[in-house]
Design a protein that fits this description.
about 0% strand
Length: about 325
C-alpha cells in the first residue's frame, strides 16, 4: 500500500457524507429563512440583518467553508481514532477494515504529525468561516464559535487518545449526538441567520440519532474485540441484546422527530419525500435483530450512513 492510499484509508472517506449531513440541514434551513425575509423586506434592509442573501445552498461560500471545517473535524477524529486504538493495542486483533497504525503502515509519530496538521488546517478554515459569517458585528458570538471550534478539536482527539479517552468509557454516543446533531444543525443555521429556531431541534435530533446509530452499529460489530481490549463502549456495557433495542430506539425516534417537524411546517406532500430514506433504516433494523455474527454488521454502517445523507439532502430540498 502506498503512503497516499494509507493516509486516505486512515481518513476513512466513507464516514464523510454522514459528517456533513447536519450542515446540509442547518444551512438549508438558514438560507430558506433568509429568503423568506427577502420576500418581506427590501434587499437593502435585509442585508443589514444577516450576512449574505444567497438564493441556494451551493452558491454560499459559508456553506462550503462549513462543509470543509466539518470534514476537517471528521478526518482529525478518524486519525486520532486510528492512533489511539493503535497505541493502546485495541486494533491488534481487529478483523475487517485495516487500521494504519496498528498494521505498522503509518507510525504513531507520523499519525501524530498528521493529526497536528489536520487540526491546524481545520482551525484556520474555521477562523475564516467565523469571520465571513459575523465579520465585526458581534465579538461575543464570534468568541463563542472560536471556543466551539477548539472544543470540537479537543473532542475529536480525546475520543480514543489519552488516559481519559471518552470513547473507552461509553460516552462516544453522547458526543456524536451533540456534535453531529445539535451543534451541526443549529450551529450552521446560526451562521446564516444569527438567531436560533428551536423547531430545528427536531431535525437536529434526527441527524443526531441516525449518526449515533452508525456509531452503535460500529460498536456492535466490534463488541468482542472491544471487550477483550477493555474498550467499554456503550454496547459493551449494555450487551448485544439491549444494544439492538437501543439501536431501534435511535432510528425510530429519529424518524419520528423528522415527521413531527414536517407536520408542524406542512405545506405540500413533497415535503415527505425524505421518507424514501427511511426504507433502508427499517431494513437495517430487521438485519440487526437477526444478526448473530457481529462482523457481518460491517456493511450496515455504510447503508445507514448513506441513508442519513440521503435523508439530509431530501429533507433540505423540500423543507
Amino acid at each position: 500500500m502506498t503512503k497516499i492510499k494509507a493516509w486516505l484509508a486512515a481518513a476513512r472517506l466513507r464516514t464523510l457524507p454522514l459528517s456533513v449531513s447536519g450542515i446540509i440541514v442547518g444551512a438549508s434551513a438558514g438560507i430558506t429563512e433568509n429568503l423568506n425575509l427577502l420576500v418581506k423586506q427590501s434587499e437593502s434592509e435585509f442585508n443589514g440583518l444577516v450576512c449574505f442573501p444567497y438564493t441556494s445552498v451551493i452558491e454560499s461560500p459559508i456553506f462550503w467553508l462549513a462543509i470543509a471545517v466539518t470534514i476537517g473535524f471528521q478526518v482529525l477524529s478518524n486519525f486520532a481514532n486510528d492512533y489511539g486504538d493503535g497505541v493502546r493495542g485495541t486494533d491488534a486483533n481487529r478483523q475487517g477494515e485495516r487500521r494504519m497504525v496498528a498494521s505498522g503502515i503509518i507510525s504513531p509519530k507520523q499519525m501524530k504529525v498528521g493529526m497536528i496538521i489536520t487540526g491546524i488546517i481545520t482551525f484556520f478554515l474555521a477562523t475564516i468561516l467565523i469571520f465571513m459569517a459575523f465579520r465585526n458585528e458581534n465579538f461575543i458570538i464570534s468568541f463563542v464559535f472560536f471556543n466551539l471550534t477548539i472544543l470540537s478539536i479537543i473532542a475529536a482527539v480525546k475520543y480514543t487518545v489519552g488516559k481519559k479517552a471518552y470513547g473507552y468509557s461509553g460516552l462516544g454516543d453522547v458526543f456524536v449526538f451533540l456534535f453531529f446533531g445539535l451543534l451541526s444543525v443549529l450551529g450552521s443555521y446560526y451562521l446564516f441567520t444569527h438567531n436560533l429556531n428551536f423547531q430545528l431541534l427536531l431535525p437536529a435530533f434526527s441527524i443526531g440519532c441516525f449518526s449515533t446509530a452508525v456509531l452503535n452499529l460500529n460498536n456492535m460489530r466490534d463488541i468482542e474485540n472491544d471487550a477483550e481490549a477493555n474498550k467499554n463502549t456503550l454496547v459493551v456495557k449494555l450487551g448485544s441484546k439491549r444494544a439492538k433495542k437501543y439501536h431501534t430506539f435511535l432510528l425510530l425516534f429519529g424518524m419520528l422527530c423528522a415527521v413531527i417537524y414536517t407536520i408542524i411546517n406542512y405545506r405540500e406532500p413533497l415535503q415527505f419525500v425524505y421518507l424514501i430514506a427511511f426504507v433502508p433504516f427499517l431494513v437495517n433494523l430487521k438485519t440487526v435483530f437477526k444478526n448473530t455474527v457481529p462482523m457481518l454488521l460491517d456493511g450496515e454502517l455504510k447503508k445507514v450512513a448513506l441513508s442519513t445523507f440521503l435523508f439530509a439532502v431530501l429533507f433540505s430540498i423540500f423543507m
